[in-house]
């Protein structure tokens, strides 16, 4: 197999020099020459690889029929399928080892992929990390080699994950991508055939499932059919099958199995039908408007939701404990999520990046709340799943803002009560959803006003004196653009105009830190905070406890650790910038900028404004690169002030 693969590669890489081929395959020039010598010996009499001075290697075929037979008989995979990168090799190795029932040595794998044993050893570190995510491991035995150890269900989940990633990235029909319509393996059904067995059943049973989950379901069934063909079945205890037989997912799973028998000719045993039912239960997506017919929210799930909301209250001081709509949204999601966590099933979230960018506070809340799920169901929650939970919190935050933060307006006019009433009527008409009280006043009596309960001043005359609240100079007759601008303003919660100085300070900014580990870097910042701020004695413990349950990396080389519950008298952010990034979590994130945050017990809604302003900085590659390059307090301060403020008052008259 490896000889024909190398011959196919040389045929496609015409004119490549030994050095270029060695670099491409990540082997030495000497190894390339060894390959050439070995392949020429195998092709003796019908083809030969020659090195032409100034033109590189060339495959010369003397007898095309013999050459074609040699390629066909060894069932060569095409040159486009030869892994070209370390990531490609890891994908190939995962597929090979998961499908293999026996042992194989590292030397044999190196020969198959035309790389050195050192390269394979390095690849195996990534292979083992990927296997661990599904509860699988590599077993090593002297003189035999390696093999994958773990349950059949875990193997299938890992295989399906590989295929879904390959399908999403290239949609190419590779040798291991058995389900692709483009080029399925011989005797394997196309995904379109499986879809014909599944789609009509799900529609009739009114299963809510998004397109990504649907594609994932088809791939899982395709993998199951392939494994059944290899006599590898999912073992399941009789009591587990009995429990699944009583679920709402079992009848449609039976009908899908009947369709598979009729259209594909494969009879599924009862444990495989139960396996399909498990996937149906784990892949439902229940929207806010979903019909919950048949969905049972158990006392256990309701209790988990209560613990999640209590966790958010303790850490962030946002009280959602009586938010019935949020409770139901979380409970609806946790019913299928619990199945996915129990069986370590993966669900991709195509909106993850947008959720992290647009709703950083909601995502942070979801990350903390997910620790309850991990404790209850004994499985780590992925960033994709955390993103779905964040959507529920984002909706609750928006609902809380619109319902609980209506503004009080002081209306100042110079033309008498009539004009004031007219403007008040117009504002009620346009902005009624955002306004609680409107108080009228003329400019002469402005000094008598108590501003304790006033949020904004709307005025048709210029006010020379400084007032304790923002002032908008406006016309009697607002234009459509002005109406939209004021709506944006009223939808936004105010925080102090000098918010940077309130939450950040020079004495809590530390540049050019040099540490080799997350432990050292974070402990250094915690030490500095304890020296300079009034925090609880358990501050360090609470930060690390939160970090151990759910690491705080945002991506973009940024992390935002914080205590598991309020632990300081005030809200502040301590910033550390490292000269070199350090590994941060098991997902492979590295971090070079650390925003160590602490929230006071009465921080509440102010966090919404703080997170909103920080969001763009946290996800801006340009801004973080600038901070890492120019590690000065002034750089951070300027970057923070450059983040877009909530819509602000302007002189509507153009003055």
TrEMBL record:
Single GO MF annotation? protein-N(PI)-phosphohistidine-sugar phosphotransferase activity
This protein's UniProt keywords: Activator, Repeat, Transcription, Transcription regulation, Transferase
Q: Which SUPFAM superfamilies match?
A: C-terminal effector domain of the bipartite response regulators, Phoshotransferase/anion transport protein, PTS system IIB component-like, PTS-regulatory domain, PRD
Enzyme class comes to transferase
A GO biological process this protein is involved in?
Answer: regulation of DNA-templated transcription
Q: What is its EC number?
A: 2.7.1.69
This protein's record includes keyword Nuclease: no
Where in the numbering of this chain does the PRD domain appear?
Answer: 185-290, 296-403
- In this chain the PTS EIIA type-2 domain maps to 502-643
Domain PTS EIIB type-2: start-end pairs: 407-498
InterPro entries according to UniProt: BglG_antiterminators, Mga_HTH, PRD, PRD_sf, PTrfase/Anion_transptr, PTS_EIIA_type-2_dom, PTS_EIIB-like_sf, PTS_EIIB_2
Q: What is this protein called?
A: Transcriptional antiterminator, BglG
State the organism of origin: Coriobacterium glomerans (strain ATCC 49209 / DSM 20642 / JCM 10262 / PW2)
